[in-house]
Backbone:
């Protein structure tokens, strides 16, 4: 029997880069449908970096650039919701809402949809500039009392150093919030990380391209790194 905890309520954080691959979107979709069948409550916070990153937009006022970045997440959210809709109950909510396109997020609405066993797609970040989608993931996980955040990345997990530059870099299978902070490990931005630490929300960092990784974590297998 695994000594890893069982999660019944999961928030998945995926970057916009995932949407550059139809194959990867398909894999994520299949795993979400499978997880729902296992009676797991699911929310997905979507990034928009494949279209536009607010912080990388030169020549723009930061507030305006971040607003554009929020819109990019909505485009990806619409795509994911439509991909899921034929196979599972789904509800797309946005931090600020756009009438005729996507409903505005409220904690009460989101909790109701989770109780109805629908997969939540959450876009628009926090709805405010200067906050990343990592911060949105941490905030929504706290508001919705999720058991854990699964952060899908393009690396195996959290390393002691950049494995591309240091061949002696060690993969951490489990580490504390305090250790991650002390060693300045790039798990999430500081705002998001502090919110997770304050609310004791475990963070799983894993390679989103690994087949069935989401399901394996739900099945209590040791995948990637766990910060708790």
Residues:
């Amino acid at each position: 029997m695994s000594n890893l905890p069982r999660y019944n309520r999961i928030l998945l954080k995926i970057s916009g880069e995932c949407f550059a691959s139809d194959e990867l979107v398909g894999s994520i979709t299949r795993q979400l449908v499978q997880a729902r069948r296992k009676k797991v409550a699911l929310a997905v916070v979507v990034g928009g970096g494949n279209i536009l990153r607010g912080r990388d937009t030169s020549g723009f006022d930061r507030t305006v650039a971040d607003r554009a970045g929020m819109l990019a997440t909505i485009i990806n959210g619409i795509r994911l919701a439509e991909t899921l809709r034929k196979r599972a109950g789904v509800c797309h909510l946005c931090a600020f809402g756009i009438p005729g396109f996507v409903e505005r997020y409220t904690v009460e609405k989101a909790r109701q949809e989770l109780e109805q066993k629908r997969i939540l797609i959450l876009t628009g970040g926090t709805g405010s500039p200067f906050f990343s989608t990592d911060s949105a993931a941490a905030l929504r996980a706290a508001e919705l009392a999720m058991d854990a955040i699964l952060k899908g990345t393009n690396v195996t997990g959290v390393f002691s150093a950049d494995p591309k530059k240091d061949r002696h870099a060690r993969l951490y299978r489990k580490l504390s919030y305090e250790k991650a902070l002390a060693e300045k490990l790039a798990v999430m931005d500081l705002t998001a990380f502090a919110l997770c630490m304050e609310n004791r929300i475990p963070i799983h960092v894993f390679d989103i391209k690994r087949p069935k990784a989401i399901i394996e974590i739900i099945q209590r297998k040791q995948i990637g790194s766990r910060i708790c």
Q: What stands out?
A: Helices lie at 22-37, 62-85, 107-115, 133-143, 177-182, 190-199, 213-218. The mean pLDDT is 93.
